[in-house]
Every structure is written in structure tokens, then in C-alpha cells.
Model the fold of this input.
Amino acid sequence: MTSEHFGAGYYRRFYGRSPVHTADTVGHLAAGVLHLAAWWGVRVRSVLDVGAGPGYWRDWFAAQHPGVRYRSIDVSAYACERFGHEQRDITRWSPRTPADLVVCQGVLQYLDREAVARAVTNLAAATRSLLYLEVPTTHDRDHVVDTAATDLDCYWRSGSWYRKQLDPHFMAVGAGIWARRSAGLPFYELERSR
Ligand SMILES: C[S@@+](CC[C@H](N)C(=O)[O-])C[C@H]1O[C@@H](n2cnc3c(N)ncnc32)[C@H](O)[C@@H]1O
Done:
């Protein structure tokens, strides 16, 4: 999907009157992710938010953890100008230094298969310890998402297809959190998928 897809109308529609999520709900999510990171012994000193859109994670970190180094990127010229991110395309870019936590919420469904593969490689290079990833699958479209509030104009793929992309770099540790395999974090066997 080109960056023109993500203009003012897109953010009005999906973050306006009946948003898919809000600053409040994202605050609960961010607090949960940080608490789990602390439980696993990961100190989050730096965060990269990929496809940051309205910037709810950035606002939460600024209010709750102003000492954390926070960087947000988005492919959309409009979002970068309006919400204050660096304009970057995760399919073609990764940072010089990895972040302790990478957030990628609601982005990969807009990329074709080859672009997802490139994005996952770049996400892996960008992640020192943990990735928070949300991407709706075909199953979610059919059984979980609120189809009135969600953008359905994207690529729909199975969870197992996404797992195949992620597995070489990450292991799933629950609730959308993926641990970088190379970080060697000591999870109990039943805390992680495999
Ligand atoms: C559904 S919004 C999610 C925004 C935010 N992460 C959230 O959960 O509220 C998708 C965002 O991903 C961005 N995006 C799409 N493709 C991208 C890419 N290749 N690189 C970086 N950002 C991208 C879009 O511009 C848009 O802001």
C-alpha cells in the first residue's frame, strides 16, 4: 500500500469518532508490556515505534517514562507532519542501533508478502530484546475484529504464514510480545510458544 493511502482521511476515519483503539486503551497495553518486560528482567531504556500513526505510545512514554529514549517512524508524510515522526519505510530501513523494545502495531497487514519479509528482517535488526506486534489475520477478520471500526482494505493472511516469517528471529511469549531469539532471555518452557 502506498503512503498516499495514509492521508488525513485515513486518520479521521479510523481514529475519529469510533476509533479502533484510543490513547487510554493503548496506555493499558503499554503499561502491561513494560511490566512484563520488567518481570523478564528486560530494562527498557529505548523504544522504536514503527508505523506510529497518531503516536499514542509516544505520548504514553512521554508522560509515564520520560527518561526512555523514544523514536517513532511512519511511512505517511501526513502522519509524520501531523503527529511528529521520522518519515521512514520499514521495508527499506532499519536503525543503526537496536532498541530494547520495538512496537509495530497494525502495520504489516498493509504490506505485500515480499514487503512483509523485508520488514520482518528490518524489525529483527531493530530489536535488541522485545517486539510488540499486532497484525490482524484472516481468522481475526472472520471471528475477532470489529469490522465497522477496522480497515478491511489490506492484505489478509493466516497466523501461520506470519509465524513462519517471524520464527527465525523471534519467539512468541504471549499477548503479542515476541522475544528476539538472539537476546537469549530465559523463559520458562510454558511461557513461550517454542
Ligand atoms: C493502522 S495504522 C497504526 C498506527 C499505530 N501503530 C496504532 O496502532 O495506532 C498503520 C500505520 O502504519 C503506517 N505504515 C504503513 N506502512 C508502513 C511502512 N512500510 N513503514 C512505516 N510505516 C508504515 C501507516 O502510515 C499508518 O500510520
Summary: The longest helix spans residues 23-39.
